[in-house]
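[User]
Um, tokens okay?
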Amino acid sequence: MRHLWIVLLGLTGGLVWNALADGAAGSAVVLGLIGLGLAWLFSPWQGGRTDRHQDVLERPVTDRDVVIYWRPGCIFCIRLRGRLGRHGKEATWVNIWQDPAAAEFVRGVNGGNETVPTVVIGGEAHTNPDPQEVLDHILASR
């Protein structure tokens, strides 16, 4: 799953090539845009650079009130990020695909599964919590 974006790029290239060979430039553009969008969604760069798990643990507890462990392409993570909107910047985001220690932590609190989003609120881990609960906590802790 971590390298799905590479597969998507390859498939997109093949589909675009075939569409161009058939003289369907418009279809090639549409397929290319859709394929590139999906590849970006599943790429490790989606969401930008995030904090490392170890760095988060070294911060004072007051500076890590809401920590969100996520991964690219996770529809539940996208839903959470979208629901939090601009308030999402007040949480600490840790990409488990960029940080093996974060992935290990998530597996540890989820029975061996890398289930995300895993949100740590006030030191307690919540697996795929209701986005409104996370938002309410962020707003209350201001």
